[in-house]
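Figure 2 data, in text form.
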Amino acid sequence: MKTKVFNSVLICFSLILLVSCSEPKKEPVWHEVYTKQGLKVVETDNTNILVHLRYSTSENFLGKDVYGNLEEAYLQPEALSKLYKASELLSKTHPELKLLIWDAARPRRIQQVLWDKVDIPLPERSQYVANPESGSIHNYGCAIDLTLADSSGNPLDMGTDYDDFSETAHIDNEVELISKGVLTDRQVQNRAILRSAMTEAGFIPIRSEWWHFDAFSRDETKSRFKIVE
């Protein structure tokens, strides 16, 4: 009798374990993750803003989707206001162009994935991917990666793609790169149009990535906002 009871319990336990292991892992409810810390979604209706999150696709240096069901971009409200201002400025100077967002707020859990997987030696790694221990400004919802697109949504030629970890993506040596034939005048002009709209709206560019802009300095960001885990 005891053997039968034991076998029945064992079978039940095995079935429970089998069902629990076969259940798909639930993806984060991103809207809740972001909005509970005050972030807001980037509105694209009736604006010249487009969103194509590259980490929700395989079009990134990892070659795989790390965001899952995330399709919308989120920012802190003040950063979002600056983005809308940049959108208005671009509409006045270049009404034929749009802002195309590749990344915005990014949880630290995803930052850890990027840090662990990027194929860059440790001494240079933080130049391109922030150490998750200290956090990226993306992790606070105060940074954005974006480019320009034409009226059909096609990205303009900026000389490199997103996640290019070479000096060709730097913004502090563009004249030299033109002289060497690495970049063209048109590519640098396109970058300048993007930088002009973003900086006039209050964003801060970084030297190593033409597509990256911070809404605030690192010190201000860390003192005013909570990191998104």
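Caption note: The longest strand covers residues 143-149.
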